[in-house]
Amino acid sequence: MSECLKYQKPNKTCMIYAIISHNIDFVTFLMNNYNLKIDLEYCVKYKNLESFLVYFDQTNDINMCFVQSLKHNISSLCEYFLSHGAKINEEYYGMTPLFYAAMYNSKETAEVLISNGANINEKDERGSTPLFYAAANNSKETAEVLISHGANINEKDERGRTALFSAAKYNSKETAEVLISHGANINEKDNFGNTAFYYAVKRKSKEIVKLLISNGANINENYNNGKSALHHASEHNNKEIVEILISNGANINEKDNFGNTALYYAAKQKSKEIVKLLISNGANINENYYNGKSVLHIAIKQNNKEIVEILISNGANINEKDNFGNTDLYYAFKQNNKEIVELFISHGANINEKFKHGKSALHIASENDNKEIVELLISHGANINEKDNFGNTALYYATKHNNKNMVELLISHGANINEKTKYGKSTLYIAAEHNNKEIAELLISHGANINEKDNFGNTALHISASKNSKKTAKVLISNGANINENNNNGKSALHHAAENNSKEMAELLISHGANINEKDNFGNTALYYATKYNNKNMVELLISHGANINEKD
């Protein structure tokens, strides 16, 4: 009381404190002097019958008090309200009184209601009967009363579920036993194709799972998307239920509609103990799933070294390829997981294996700028100058992705700087194409051939001009690039600059002696291409530097 009086004016909180403490004098005081309503739910929760009776005495609200009285499980109180006009089949908040008796396991009260004409199979707005509520709240005694008076055990709600479903979902073992002993259909399916057993597994109701199995539940039943109970238990990391299912004959290698087994889901959810349990009971480690990927791939994708170790130690094929021609080692590189890569190598994985487009592990690690993995591969004998189907080396990918430190590392281990791609492109050409000045300088300092040509006769300077890579072009020119070198079509770097409207490049080339009126094999000058592509600024620049405007092709 003293706590409540700290408030300037007593409020609802004060009334709640008074009910909780069973201080009937204060409850009456607050109700009479401050018009504060007695909260009947708190009266039920804290078993304060006296405050409940004060409420009734003050309000004479028979119907409200009738419903609340059921929660106190006092049959004489129920009889009193019925004798004073309480309506037995009237709905209160969507439910008749019998629902409340079932919910609060008020056996004696339920008997009074039934003997006075309560409708046993009455349904609420969701189609549930009082028996559903008894099952959900494990009100065993009340369930027995309802059944003994004709409650329909296999009645379905709007979702096609019976009372047994409610017992399974809420782990009401004792009530489930009552329902089963009176003929509940164990393998009945709801509108979604699920059984009570499915919900028991999903809710991790271990005792209900055992009970249903002992009474004939089909443990290999397939549910939504073809998943079995074992799939669900594995997916939700429920080891105890997985053990129960396996010990009762669950099909360990059963596949769902996506082709996945329980082992797949256990690995995906990083359920180490379930993975071990499934393997020890015969799960197929090398089963292929979507696109030919194995469970090992799933563990790698989750960066789960422990499960990868378990799988490998139990015979997982580390060199198996998926539908794209990639092994699990490939995916370990893609994840940049050094520890898993080391694990694969220590178990004999082929580090020079070719994957999609002929790429090796070293190509991928270089592309992803993973220095540690590249060093690891090289130390185990990876071919540093290996080419993929396009003639690209690891150095090519490091250069293309502007990974300077990787370029230095590969060069220090003997990467061939002047190696060419399928199209004749050198590494320096790639650096120029991506305007990476620092890598260009690095390559040149290690002996890159500045005037090397691709299959079309283009040099690094040609591509710099096309891409307007001014910074890289300066490096090339300062290191002896031939400004007037022609490609297979007789085009110079200036032709390319004019054609691609690379004004800054054109200025740079002209300032270093580019022949403005040079003609290609078709008799065209740089001015011709600038005009052809409507590059007005380029036209003005070329004319200002002496381009012959009357030149004919």
From TrEMBL:
Pfam families: Ank_2, Ank_3, Ank_4, DUF3447. SMART domains: ANK. Gene3D superfamilies: Ankyrin repeat-containing domain (1.25.40.20). ANK repeats lie at residues 93-125, 126-158, 159-191, 192-224, 225-257, 258-290, 291-323, 324-356, 357-389, 390-422, 423-455, 456-488, 489-521, 522-553. Residues 1-55 form the DUF3447 domain. Coiled coil: none annotated. Keywords: ANK repeat, Repeat. The keyword S-adenosyl-L-methionine does not apply. PROSITE patterns: ANK_REP_REGION, ANK_REPEAT. The keyword Repeat applies. This is Ankyrin repeat protein, putative. It comes from Trichomonas vaginalis (strain ATCC PRA-98 / G3).
